[in-house]
Give the backbone structure.
Amino acid sequence: MKKFKTLARLSLSLMIATLVSACANQPNTHLTDTSHIENKSLPPISIFFALPSNKMLVACQEFENASAFNDCQLNPIDWQYYVNSFRDSNKFHEVHEAKNDVDYQLEIASTSFNKDSINVEMNLYWRNQKINSADYQLPHARSISLLQTNSANEDVANTLVTKFISDADQQALFSATYLAQQLQSSDYDKDFQLTEKIGDFALNFKYVYTDPFLGASMRYHHQKFLSDYIDVYVYPIRRIEWQDRRDALNEEINLVRQEIEYVIAQQESLSVTTEDNQFIQLALEHGDTQGVFFDGIISEPGQEDLYTSTYVFINGDKFVKFRATFPASFSKTFVEQALPLIQVPTESHFMAKLRDEYRQKQQLDNP
């Protein structure tokens, strides 16, 4: 009898080992290939655990009410499994745990019905603005969960994270275009236009920043002297009004000056000297345009001085900034040729709403 029990125990052990091995070696049909996504190509993201939505809670309650044997669990998989999966994917520049000062934040909530399936909600936010929601349902391998709970939870987390990354890639969730659509901010890719050639300069590239407050830029290289180039930036005015254009221009170019001085200060061997702001009035085809500019010299011991110049103008509710690698007296010709040709986006719903909200706040603060 003892021998039989021993044989039975050995047989059961063998069956369990075989079952676990079979489950572990079966290809995961839910995984999606994300190998084409470059490592660290996605922006920093912060992962948050959230309570399931009312819809999920109602479904959970209805499931349990249907039978005394039914069991619905809330957030059955530990949050750390998701965080680890995002980090192990190596697709995001950084992965944080419940950090509030990260632009992109992902909330994850889930329920489990009798440990047979996992229902997951993933809500993606940009600076507290929801920009995407996704629902996933996956089977939860009961055979593994009974024997190796950690392995099962890790497998589910890996599968969900892989699905999310694949969907994010297909829908371009982290692109500037997608964010602009969701926020109803300016579409700089379509509405910021300038000719490919201006005088002796030719367009090298156009870059649209993900952050709608940064807008977009174009770089023009001199066709003979390739080390000489001019960057053209277009971005929204961070004010509710700019009737005093001179004041708005002066404030903005001083911020540009501070930015340059800060960047140079990070380099121990470099120093920068900038001249005072100078206001100009350009006579263009569509009328006179007021702007402001300054010159600067970047110095390094034992090296030839480098020149920089910056012009700032206003077009609609946007600043138009020109930054050149040579003095303003030379970049002025490019500026005069480019300004009449440049097309900028009109005020977006996003900026109009922000400005209106700030006006209302000012009225409440100063009745």
Q: What stands out?
A: The chain is about 40% helix and 30% strand.
